[in-house]
Amino acid sequence: MSKNTFYVTTPIYYVNAKPHLGTLYSTLLADVLARWNRMKGADVFFLTGTDEHGQKIANQAAMAEMAPQQFVDQMIPPFHAAWERYHISYDHFIRTTDLSHKQTVSRWIEQLISKGDIYKARYEGWYCVPCETFIPLEKLGEEKASAACPSCQREVSRITEENYFFKLSAYQDRLLAFYDQHPDFIFPKERGNEIFSFVRSGLKDLSISRMSVDWGIPFPGDSEHTVYVWGDALMNYVSALGYLQTGPQAGDRFAKFWPADVQVMAKDIVKFHAVYFPAFLMAMGVQPARRLLVHGYLLVDNDKMSKSKGNVFDPVVLADSFGVDQIRFYLTRYMTTTQDGNVSVPDIMQRIESDLANALGNLLQRTASLALKQGAAQVVLPKQWSDASEKLRAQCGDMLAQFEKQMDGLQLSQAYASVWNFIAQVNAYFHEQEPWKLAKTDMQKFTQVIAASAQSLYAIAHVIAPVMPFKSRQLLAALGHTLVADKSVVWANQWNVACTLFVPKDPLFIRPEMPEWYQKPVDKAEESNKPTTEKDVAVVQSGEKATGGEYITIDTLAQVVLVAGTIKECEPVAKSKKILRMSVDLGAYGMRQILAGVAEFFTPEQLISKRATFVANLPPRPMLGLISEGMMLVAKDGNKMSLVSVDPDIADGTRLG
Ligand code: MSP
Question: For residue 377, which of 399, 498, 524, 631 sits 20 to 30 Å off, Cα-Cα?
């Protein structure tokens, strides 16, 4: 029997600052998965929370002249408020200062001691307070008075303490066997490879207590120590389910939901979740989680967005300026789930305008207003669909199948790329059928186009529900439906749904306006292009440097998003001697289907694996019954053609300019 529960977790966040867009991102991906699995009928448990012990928090509380408990308590409301604002549908919010969590951690340590997995020894080495991580001497050397953390590059402190150690080294072989038996444990696989080689290179025992840190869970049997904050924190995933709790039904939830189906996190903390936590559980005879979804970092100007760098976006400010569902969509669709991606206000605005307002909002608006104008609000399903409609119906079926596969495979950005590819197909169908002309000539065909479009919108409304729960409902309301139906109903009733169209009073999406708070970043190229000498000024003013026409401004150029990409697949297109269809990896800009008129110059084999430059922000364009989602730049010289290549060490998705 297949398991019909789904347990998804986020990292628990340090409470040294309020949540930012990066912390929202992990929480949002978990929320999208939770909503999707609820739609599939699973009994879902979605956990998030806060990590409140340790030296970092203690230091911060001291700076704020507060007792640690008082300090952490006043940091919680911003988390609740941000998650509420973004409709994060968590079932439980755990705090590591919760009494039940502290009890679980103490009992866990007691049991490790009685099983012989813990011993006392001297730790001499480095400690990074921001990462709350021990760094062994061999990594940074003994002599130096100070050194930088290999992970966050901040200064580490040298410590010498009597500590309790967990026998991590004893679990090396069991961990390797576990990875072997569970090849899907870490997604994406590349992240797994880093972990496997780390474990294979030899595990050292892990210091599991701190002597000099008071703000933590007292170490059982030794009041001079507290439990190491990462040991404390990782156990939240099981303590939240009542693990090691006593009393009637205390263990029920744990029995029902563990092992977790998906644990979401960024790459900075994979080692803790893929090595230490599984070993902690193995020591207790408990199975590790099923899958880890390791997503990329949100970047600003190619730099990781982080509290310490002060380059964070406040999710609440973005929601005020652009709308909650819009930001949820932008992050899920445009940050390639497993890769780093830049966030910028112009990009957010452009995506909302092209993908939401134009591609989806206009489709609804045009379908509903045309139908109402002809008194055809009640959608009539035809006895037989035309060939063109039948094709669209098949595309809808393909999209639903692909969406499901990609969502279950944790490729969330890809799943929504499939949905928007289908939206482009519906728009192409609508455009080709010209229902506004049919309204005057052939009412039967007209009603069929409206029906096909409404059926497509009905399917779209459901697949967008996990990412845009409110817009999904608004879209369904415009089709005469009130509830997001169960996934199985939608998938089973494809193109067979009674709909009554109506034009919403407010459009589904509005074109965003540049928020007042937005400050355009200083354009380095523009700065360096400024004329500096009198001669330069004269040359620029006379237009002497202009060749082949008028000058454009640097702003005009900046509107074109040119990015490096790799051609992954390439094939001819039926009925065309000129066009090749390519699947192109544009890194943070996603996998794109791009059609290019290059078949007379290259064979598909010559193009596969080639690097080239692509325009990433053209609207999707129907061509030969397919959708082209970008343009490849080429240089054509008579009967010769060249791609515009980039060096191999420049990552896909890097912007040119
Ligand atoms: N408290 C630990 C986690 C303990 S889990 C048992 C911690 N907290 S944190 O507040 O620093 O949050 C780290 C997590 O926040 C990352 O792993 C990631 O999930 C998320 N992110 C923080 N900044 C981010 C980006 N710039 N981009 C994407 N995710 C980001 O580590």
Answer: 399
What pLDDT sits at residue 541? 38
Report helix, strand or coil for 302.
coil
DSSP assignment string, 490-522: HHHTTT----B----SS-SS------TT--PPP
Ligand 1 centre distance from Cα of residue 12 (Å):
8
Give distance in angstroms: CA of 118 to centre of ligand 1. 28
413-430 confidence digits (pLDDT tens): 999 999 999 999 999 999
535 pLDDT more than 60: no
Q: In this structure, which residue's CA is closest to atom 18 in ligand 1?
A: 266
Say if residue 538's pLDDT is above 60: no
Show the ligand 1 pocket: residues with CB < 6 angstroms: 11-14, 22-23, 25-26, 51, 233-234, 236, 265-266, 268-269, 297-298, 304-306
Q: What is the mean pLDDT of residues 297-310?
A: 86
DSSP state of 258: P
The Cβ of residue 105 has, within 10 Å, a number of other Cβ atoms equal to: 27
Round the CA-based radius of gyration of the chain to a whole number and report it: 28
Task: Say what the pLDDT of residue 623 is.
Answer: 77
How many whole angstroms from 266 Cα to the centroid of ligand 1?
A: 6
- Helices vs. strands in the chain: H and E counts, helices first: 26, 27
The answer to whether the beta carbons of residues 622 and 565 sit under 8 Å apart is no
